[in-house]
Specification:
Layout (H helix, E strand, L loop, with lengths): L1 E6 L6 E6 L5 E8 L4 E10 L6 E2 L7 E3 L9 H5 L20
Antiparallel strand pairs: 1-2, 2-3, 3-4, 4-5, 4-6
């Protein structure tokens, strides 16, 4: 099993590429959540000799990071400061004069 990690300069998302023993490669874009959980933002699979296929059914799912079976820990991959995600500010509604 080979695992590759790619950092993003502008957000806390990480791209993880993992080659399984049968030759299938999985590419996941992960977003850190609280309590060691991650959300799958993008999921692609490539079987040996084939093109990449997007698997939309897996996108949006959340997992405990340990379930992914990666050699790095949650903190090693995302850093200690990304454990609590940034919550966007609420949208203010404009007042309409009548």
């Amino acid at each position: 099993m080979r695992v590759t990690f790619q950092d993003s300069l502008f957000n806390s998302e990480r791209v993880v590429e993992r080659v399984l023993p049968g030759g299938t490669t999985l590419r996941l874009t992960l977003e850190p959540l609280s309590e060691g959980r991650v959300r799958v933002l993008a999921y692609s699979r490539r079987r040996a000799g084939e093109r990449w296929q997007r698997v939309k059914d897996e996108e949006g799912r959340t997992f405990a990071f340990a379930q992914l079976g990666l050699p790095a820990s949650f903190t090693e991959l995302f850093g200690a400061d990304t454990i609590t995600p940034v919550v966007p500010a609420p949208v203010r509604r404009k007042k309409v004069r009548r």
